[in-house]
Amino acid sequence: MLPVPAPQRNREAAFLSLKERLAAARRPAPPQERRLPCDLPALDAAIDGGLPAGLVTLEGALSSGRGAIAFRALAAASRNAFVAFLDDGGCYPPALAEAGVLLERLLIVPVREGGALARALDTLLRSRVCRVVFVRARAWSAAIWGRFARLARETGSTLLALLDGPLQAPAGLPVLRLRCRGERLVLCGRGSVGGALLGFAFSVEPLARTLPSRTPISLQAMLLREAAPLRERSLRSARAPQRTLRTHA
Fold first, then answer.
1. DSSP 51
2. Does 90 fall in a domain?
């Protein structure tokens, strides 16, 4: 004769099963990671659709294309949200407006001293007001880097940190590193006299553990304010072709 289960044991099992099903139904679905396109199709495709939330470092020498990527990201984010620029004296709003940044959604924070810069950055990230925060990084300790990287991830913000010269972010903290290198200038005309600058070409090497490839990508940043007159000039004169000039990175 088979043993008959105790009614109390049956009730407990049914209660635990119902509790698990209700908890699973109330459990929110994991949020989809928001990506911020840079309006550079080749780069966006290489980094899974755009810049992720968290710390993103822009590395390279002067005139290596770092600013072009940062300005494109600020422009894209300013269409739907506020963005912030921590200004250590080098911010030029007309250049940001020319790149497409909506100035009415741009918060410029003038700050130069290192301690004040860190406090302003901490306040901005905790406020959750700005989708993108741009800062020229200092030689901060690993603890400070870690705090900013964690805050950016938790608030869903993209922290764009421009690294000058030998500055390096501690390993493992940035969710994405973009290593930039200038390649050549794009000119219109022959020779330096009468020639005009159309823009410049640069390469970007994306570095992240989640990316399948770190092959450098070649990009071009063209000057918008010169586009119309230079295009008209090149159509009128067949002897003024575009050419490139190699630069030393």
1. B
2. yes
- Indicate which CATH number applies to the domain containing 118: 3.40.50.300
Q: What is residue 140's three-state secondary structure?
A: coil
> What are the structure tokens assigned to 159, written together?
């922290």
**Beta bridge mates, 86:** 109
- Compute φ and ψ for 53, nearest 5 degrees: -75, 145
Helical ranges in the chain per DSSP H: 7-26, 41-46, 66-78, 93-98, 114-127, 142-155, 227-236
- Asked if residue 63 lies in contact with residue 200, where contact means CB atoms within 8 angstroms, the answer is yes
DSSP type of residue 77: H
Give me the domain span that covers residue 158: 41-182+200-221
pTM: 0.74
Burial class of residue 195 (count of CB atoms within 10 Å of its CB; 0-12, 13-18, 19+): middle
**C-alpha span between 200 and 121 (Å, rounded):** 31
Here the tokens at position 137 are 């990084």
Neighbours of 37 (CB within 10 A): 16
Angle, vertex CA 222, rays to CA 219 and CA 228, nearest 5: 150
Residue 28 included in any domain: no
pLDDT (tens digit, 0 to 9) for every residue of the chain, 249 residues total?
545 555 666 777 777 777 677 666 654 444 456 789 888 888 999 998 899 999 999 999 888 899 999 999 999 999 999 999 999 888 999 989 988 999 999 999 999 888 899 999 999 999 999 999 999 988 888 999 999 999 999 999 999 999 987 788 888 899 999 999 988 887 776 655 556 777 888 999 999 877 877 788 888 877 654 443 333 333 333 334 444 444 444
DSSP one-letter code for 170: P
Q: Does any domain span residue 153?
A: yes
